[in-house]
């Protein structure tokens, strides 16, 4: 890169076509090397994320680096309610709390009906095969945001085999102390 920059400086100053040609060659070479490095980096991360023996902490660091999940450094904007402006996070939280608690007031004294008819159909157990999951992963749009589980669609798209599909729920279970993680959450995150 330094050599490319030196040749570029020289070409600009001399305006010599030989120097410009040399600069173009070096520029294209640098671009190719950067692309190769990025691809190798992605392959390395994919290999690490599919490793069964990776500790959960390292697994989540890799996931966050791939999905670009990070805490926002920007302060939240002010809120205005009934002519007052709220700047402090505690005041904002109280405002939201009062707003949503007023919306969801439930009539506790209402009586429940005694004779509720059975539903017209009974939902059977949903069976999802590994092939169906892999088909959905092939059609996954990587530009969509992460689902409620926080797993990036890009990570899911990189997964090619069913064996690696079993790794994600086990890491989620270890991280959040969940006893049973369903493939249903995995399918719904980021798809549609």
UniProtKB/TrEMBL annotation:
Protein name: Reverse transcriptase domain-containing protein
């Amino acid at each position: 890169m330094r050599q490319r920059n030196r040749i570029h400086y020289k070409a600009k100053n001399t305006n010599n076509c030989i120097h410009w040609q040399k600069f173009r060659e070096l520029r294209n070479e640098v671009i190719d090397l950067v692309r190769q490095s990025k691809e190798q980096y992605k392959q390395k991360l994919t290999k690490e994320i599919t490793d069964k023996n990776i500790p959960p902490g390292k697994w989540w660091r890799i996931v966050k680096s791939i999905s670009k999940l990070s805490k926002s450094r920007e302060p939240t904007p002010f809120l205005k309610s009934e002519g007052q402006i709220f700047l402090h996070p505690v005041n904002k939280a109280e405002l939201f709390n009062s707003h949503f608690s007023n919306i969801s007031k439930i009539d506790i004294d209402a009586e429940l009906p005694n004779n509720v008819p059975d539903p017209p159909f009974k939902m059977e157990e949903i069976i999802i095969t590994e092939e169906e999951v892999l088909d959905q992963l092939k059609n996954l749009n990587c530009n969509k945001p992460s689902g409620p589980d926080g797993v990036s669609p890009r990570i899911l798209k990189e997964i090619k085999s069913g064996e690696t599909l079993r790794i994600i729920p086990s890491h989620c279970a270890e991280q959040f102390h969940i006893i049973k993680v369903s493939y249903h959450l995995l399918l719904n995150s980021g798809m549609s």
